[in-house]
Automatic annotation (TrEMBL), chain A:
The keyword Oxidoreductase applies. It comes from Abyssobacteria bacterium (strain SURF_5). Pfam families: TPP_enzyme_C. One of its GO terms (molecular function) is oxidoreductase activity, acting on the aldehyde or oxo group of donors, iron-sulfur protein as acceptor. This is 2-oxoglutarate oxidoreductase. Residues 60-210 form the Thiamine pyrophosphate enzyme TPP-binding domain. Keywords: Oxidoreductase. It comes from the Bacteria. One of its GO terms (biological process) is small molecule metabolic process. InterPro entries: 2-oxoacid:Fd_oxidoreductase (IPR051457), THDP-binding (IPR029061), TPP_enzyme_TPP-bd (IPR011766).
Automatic annotation (TrEMBL), chain B:
It comes from Abyssobacteria bacterium (strain SURF_5). Residues 15-236 form the Pyruvate flavodoxin/ferredoxin oxidoreductase pyrimidine binding domain. Residues 247-341 form the Pyruvate:ferredoxin oxidoreductase core domain. This is 3-methyl-2-oxobutanoate dehydrogenase subunit VorB. Keywords: Oxidoreductase. GO terms for molecular function: oxidoreductase activity. The gene is vorB. It holds the Pfam family POR_N.
């Protein structure tokens, strides 16, 4: 008898994605859905969508979803989780959302140790609005609003969110992964599962920063985009676990 | 006879919220409304609720959004500058039809302004305030008793219509103490919330969203919201009338200003001037019919506000076209005395037509 060894996660809908061909948002979505399936929590999971490319997550996840204003997903998630502490609550945010307009919300939500999971997709540009500079844009990187390349004298430095948030007491888990090759994807899968495990076990705030290419706005082919992630992003945004709590936080 | 307590307006409001079943408060301190979070930080946990002092007004309103979207009664409170920061969240809640209560104990602006009482946020409250095509349900108490009663009413209306509701009061109503009964006059209404996001266990996955990109979808959504607002306009206006049956001049005032006007009317009647009051209790929906009827009958209308003439515009829209409308306004923390209002009543009676400059 043939045995099915690979199938679509239950938590993922069969709607074709609107993302650009080759975009790794689809991969990230799948990894999140697999984690939801793994813990069997689909029926008690609530997603919080941010603005930008990821806002359509309600089309792709078979879970209840609320759409938050730009950058405010961690605050909305706080309200959802406080009102429904038994539910699994996650946000899915881009770098413009989390590292620019929403820095206040992410820092204080993390600092309160809200028992939620944040999937932070960092592709160093504003994707949906057409490739403008983000707080994570690399030095020298050209975007539509840094046409001469990002210069720290005018634009500051790319922010390393996973490291910064790891310094906060309220954070249970903070890690950075990438999706640039199959091995990286497998590591990302483990990290995302771990982040949800933290929440399932009520360990506190968990964040997975996922390095992703935006070849459309980077103006490169998908394969060249993955190469840039590996050769240009990872040296500045190193992969790894920056904080991992092993016991519950009873400070 | 119900037991009366000498109690502060802000505290009566906070207690009403607990009795109305509000179990989630998220807020950020600002004068002159701090008694509300202070009271709730003490009493909500005892009632099994959650109090969080958020890092900003922006976070506060978004936490309210999350808790309300979960089907709970949730609220925040602030004052002018903080309400400005909350407008983004209120627009999203109106758009995705999530109810909530927002309390604005007004301070005078624009900008940081001052902490004295004013009614300068009327436009912000009644014209949506944030971006897009929407309205808040706005209730304007004029006593500590009403700070209690209308807070319960606001939660009920918010849930009934899945829309943000606002209590619009000022520093005087928030800070003063009056005898009030902290017992609801009627059973508190609760509503089923099958739309809430509670996990897709008993239903298909559902979404609370405001983004509609397909052709005509956003317009259809906004037209559906308009139908709701029309229904609210038709069914929910609240107002109080006093001494209008024989009046030769009708004064329109809300909140604190209406209390001062009541004293001025008494003074006027002692002098043989037949003055009456129409007090809007809901500012959205504005009691246009009541204002129209009164102005049709009486023709002489004086609008008194603690601003430069904001509700005035609603009176102008509502009044009979032959009504002779005058205005007296004290902005920026200026509180009129009954004698000053009386002088304006006399001036309006003798003036031929037109709006008086404040």
């Amino acid at each position: 008898m043939p045995q099915q060894v690979f199938k679509r996660p239950r938590a993922l809908s069969d709607k074709p994605t609107h993302f650009c061909p080759g975009c790794t948002h689809g991969t990230a979505h799948r990894l999140v859905a697999e984690a939801i399936d793994y813990f069997g929590v689909q029926e008690r999971t609530i997603g919080v969508a941010c603005v930008g490319c990821a806002v359509f997550m309600y089309d792709y996840f078979n879970v209840d979803v609320i759409e938050a204003p730009h950058g405010r997903a961690p605050a909305v998630a706080t309200g959802v989780k406080r009102a429904q502490p038994e539910k699994i609550v996650f946000t899915y945010q881009g770098d413009g959302d989390l590292a620019a307009i929403g820095t206040s919300e992410i820092i204080h939500t993390a600092n309160r140790g809200e028992n939620i999971t944040v999937i932070f997709v960092n592709n160093t540009v504003y994707g949906m609005t057409g490739g403008q500079m983000a707080p994570t844009t690399l030095l020298g990187q050209q975007t539509t609003t840094s046409p001469y390349g990002r210069d720290f004298r005018t634009d500051g430095y790319p922010i390393r969110m996973a490291e910064m948030l790891a310094t906060l007491e309220g954070v249970a888990y903070s890690t950075r992964v990438s999706l640039h090759n199959p091995k990286a994807v497998l590591n990302a899968k483990k990290a995302i599962r771990k982040a949800f495990e933290m929440q399932v076990n009520e360990m506190g705030f968990s964040l997975v920063e996922v390095l992703s290419a935006c070849h459309t706005n980077w103006r490169v082919s998908p394969l060249a985009g993955q190469k840039k992630v590996e050769e240009e992003m990872i040296p500045y945004f190193p992969l790894g676990v920056f904080k991992e709590r092993t016991g519950k936080d009873f400070l | 006879m119900k037991d009366l307590q000498l109690i502060k307006g802000n505290v009566a409001l906070a207690e009403a919220a607990i009795q109305a079943g509000c179990r989630y408060y998220f807020g950020y301190p600002i004068t002159p409304q701090n008694d509300i979070p202070e009271y709730l930080s003490e009493h909500l946990p005892k009632a099994g609720g959650i109090f969080i002092q958020a890092e900003s007004e922006i976070a506060s309103i978004n936490m309210v959004m999350g808790a309300s979207a979960s089907g709970a009664r949730a609220m925040t409170s602030s004052s002018g500058p903080g309400i400005s920061l909350m407008q983004e969240g209120m627009s999203y809640m109106a758009g995705s039809e999530i109810p909530c209560l927002v309390v604005n104990i007004m301070r005078c602006g624009p900008g940081l302004g001052g902490i004295s009482p004013t009614q300068g946020d009327y436009f912000q409250a009644t014209r949506g305030g944030g971006h897009g095509d929407y309205y808040n349900i706005v209730l304007a108490p004029a006593s500590v008793q009403e700070m209690f009663n209308l807070t319960i009413k606001a939660f009920e209306l918010a849930d009934k219509y899945r829309n943000p509701a606002m209590i619009l009061a000022d520093a005087i109503l928030g800070q003063m103490k009056e005898p009030a009964s902290l017992e609801p006059t009627e059973p508190i209404q609760f509503f089923d919330k099958p739309w809430a996001i509670t996990g897709a266990k008993d239903h298909k996955p559902q979404y609370l969203k405001t983004l509609y990109l397909n052709d005509g979808e956003q317009e259809a959504h906004n037209l559906q919201l308009k139908e709701k607002y029309d229904h609210i306009r038709e069914n929910e206006p609240l107002y109080e009338e006093q001494a209008t049956s024989d009046a030769e001049i009708v004064i329109v005032a809300f909140g604190t200003a209406s209390r001062i006007v009541k004293t001025a009317i008494k003074l006027a009647r002692e002098e043989g001037i037949r003055a009456g009051l129409v007090r809007p209790i809901t500012l959205f929906p504005f009691p246009s019919k009541a204002v129209y009827e009164a102005s049709k009958r009486v023709r002489k209308v004086l609008v008194v506000e603690m601003n430069t003439g904001q509700m005035l515009t609603d009176v102008q829209i509502s009044a009979h076209r032959e009504a002779d409308i005058h205005f007296y306004g004290r902005p920026g923390g200026g509180v009129p005395t009954p004698e000053e209002v009386l002088a304006e009543i006399k001036r309006s009676i003798h003036a031929t037509a037109g709006i008086q400059a404040p």
